[in-house]
Amino acid sequence: MPVDSDSLAAFRKQVTSARSLDTISWDASRQLVNPADWPATRTRLIDAIDASSTHDDLKQGLIAALPPAHATDDRHSCVDLLKQFTGLPPTKALRALCVFFGLRAKPTTKWPLPTVSPDTVEAFIQEHLNPFDLLLEQLPASMLDLGAGDLSFAEELVTLYEPQLAMHNRPLMLHCLDRLNPDSQLGGPLHAPPLRLTRLRAKPGLQFRFYGDQDMFALDPLERDQRLATRYLIVTCWAPATPTFAYEPTRISPTCLAEELRRTKGESREVRHGKEHALEVHHAGRSLLFPPWKFDIRGPLALLELMATRGALCVLGAVDSQVFWEILSQLIEDPGVRPADLILSPQTLPQVFGETYRRLAALPIGGSCMLSDLAPLRQSFPSVLRLPAGHLAPYRFRQVRIQRGALFEGIPASSTARRFQGMSEETPPWFVTLVPESISIS
Ligand SMILES: C[S@@+](CC[C@H](N)C(=O)[O-])C[C@H]1O[C@@H](n2cnc3c(N)ncnc32)[C@H](O)[C@@H]1O
Hints:
3-stranded antiparallel β-sheet; alpha/beta; 2 domains; 11 strands; 17 helices; binds S-adenosylmethionine
């Protein structure tokens, strides 16, 4: 049935108004209608028209007015129809329909993204004990370091890999961030020394960025204005913060958590320290000052999801025992290793993890094993982050390798990893390599 002239006029008005209200989408819509993108855009536009609340007659008319997928020169055969619906010449008409029906152009990215498959990464991990060597084999050589501290790992990595990549004219892209505010008086040795920063920033062949005062769970603004890439070949985190990642909030209730923090860390309160806020903690007869967010508990699920959705490969170095077992309890399929409100400790670990605990505890320093040889890997992880569009969830890890120790021959390490060497009362830390894959929802 032909669309009556009143409905057409009302529709034209709505299209004009959508276009003038959303100038960003209007500018971006140019990309959607270029000849290479038009076939895919046409399919999306038809789906969007179909799914809309537009009147059925109008829907049919609009779909009939769209130029064919592979005959973009033929746009002019639709001139009259498109003009009727939008009041615009053909290309502008199609752009206006894209904006009106909510089609968004994919942002063009400043940083190259990895295209390597999980199969290839898994095969690489089976053969190489140094996961960072993937930088030499796959494009782009890109890495994100979360909670980068004093950037000593960053500098070691650059010293080892940048010259080898430069020989093949390949840049190393290294993005680092830390929640510590570089201007803060708190945090002591975790601050990046200015000289190291200057050296890294000055290195030719290195695309280095450091973002201080940056919470790893608030990356949207950085990503939106392309200060970060959406995905990296490798995402790493060295000495994941305690207690931030030492307790999983979906497993341990707020009351139990508060009691445990009071018992192990002491009483704490927010205070002023000069011009800044701080957390004052009374521990073993001493009063210690930390950044105010020191006791923000995010838990392993948040860290694993962040890393899995941003890296083709994830590497956790110098993981202390408490954080390690809490992470492990999320990686195994058996829900029995995630008991509610039970704090994991040397006393409870054997009972919770059984044979897996005994085999891992027996791993010598420098030893390694695949977690799947000890217990079935978890097949799907609950999403605890609100991810921006483009980051797929749910996810899982198809391979997890566990190595025991802080330092490994030929593998760059962070300053905390090096400090573990001198800590005789600490149990040796863990090095965990994870190969993520997203699970498509059918
Ligand atoms: C134990 S230190 C390890 C520093 C460094 N990776 C190393 O191994 O030497 C933990 C680091 O994580 C940072 N951090 C803690 N929570 C963070 C968050 N939510 N986002 C970004 N960095 C965070 C801390 O400021 C600190 O520098």
